[in-house]
From TrEMBL:
The lineage of its organism: Bacteria, Bacillati, Actinomycetota, Actinomycetes, Streptosporangiales. This is (2Fe-2S)-binding protein. InterPro entries: FhuF_C (IPR024726). Residues 240-260 form the Ferric siderophore reductase C-terminal domain.
């Protein structure tokens, strides 16, 4: 939009719609929370930073990895030198994926709208998910059909954000592409399952969207949803095909969807989670 041009009615409506969607899904808390300033602003000032700074500025990304490394060391009571940089980078990448995919999946499932990542701003945080804030922006209208929504998320989030972020992370530490996309697949499943838990009425469309995303490249083959209990058809668990390296953190175990879990351990975890005896 050129300088001095007044926004049209259609633009104003779609801005209002995505703000409504983000405000609603922010009530879910945690990774779903995106701050929606009132009134809307087109440029978000410091300490907020444009999202693309995470991959366009090597120094910023290096600091993010270092911060995560320090946080992991503190939590497990070890020195920073005991935490491999590649482990910290992998966990940073998965945390970022969960942070961005959660509100994206929630707004597409519930409203058929997607907030363009280019409109998001972030700031560093030492605890919890990184804060996100949205600037004044139009929504991407994708509808609630799982296939259409999955393609919209693939185009605007997987391609525009995670492809350059993965490339930038791999320039700093040695990480396999399959590991990073496995992290994204795990984040997809986590966001869909969490949304289904928090809003049971959204359970089926959330899992359908997750399945549709996992069928698209580059997530295809990175993992799958399984429903181990016929009596609980809406209870789905995810099994990934790669490992995020979390098991290499001292004094820690494996993630619930880890490819390295034994089948017996996996089944026991599922039974406890579903309260099946």
């Amino acid at each position: 939009m050129g300088e001095g041009t007044r926004p049209g009615k259609e633009y104003e409506l779609t801005v209002r719609d995505i703000r409504t969607a983000l405000t609603d899904t922010a009530e879910l808390g945690g990774f779903f929370d995106v701050e929606v300033p009132d009134p809307p602003v087109r440029v978000v000032d410091a300490p907020w930073r444009p999202l693309n700074q995470l991959w366009s500025d090597p120094g910023v990304l290096a600091q993010r990895i270092a911060d995560v490394r320090q946080r992991i060391a503190h939590r497990c009571g070890r020195g920073v030198g005991d935490i491999e940089p590649r482990v910290a980078a992998s966990i940073m990448f998965q945390g970022t994926a969960s942070r961005l995919l959660s509100p994206s999946i929630a707004t597409t499932v519930t409203y058929g709208l997607l907030c363009p990542p280019s409109a998001l701003y972030w700031q560093p945080s030492q605890e919890g998910p990184i804060p996100l804030r949205v600037g004044d922006t139009e929504a991407v209208r994708c509808g609630t059909d799982p296939s259409a929504a999955a393609h919209a998320i693939s185009e605007h989030v997987l391609t525009e954000v995670f492809q350059p972020l993965a490339a930038a992370a791999r320039e700093q530490v040695k990480l396999a592409p399959g590991l990073l996309w496995g992290n994204v697949a795990s984040s997809v499943s986590g966001a869909c399952r969490r949304l289904a838990d928090l809003r049971p009425g959204m359970s089926q469309p959330a899992l359908e969207l997750g399945q549709a995303l996992l069928e698209l490249e580059p997530l295809r083959g990175r993992g799958e949803f399984v429903r181990p209990f016929p009596q609980l058809p809406q209870t789905a668990f995810f099994v990934r095909r790669t490992c995020c390296l979390y098991y290499r953190v001292p004094n820690n175990g494996k993630c619930g969807d880890c490819a390295l879990l034994s089948e017996q351990t996996r089944q026991e975890q599922w039974r406890r989670a579903a309260d099946v005896r």
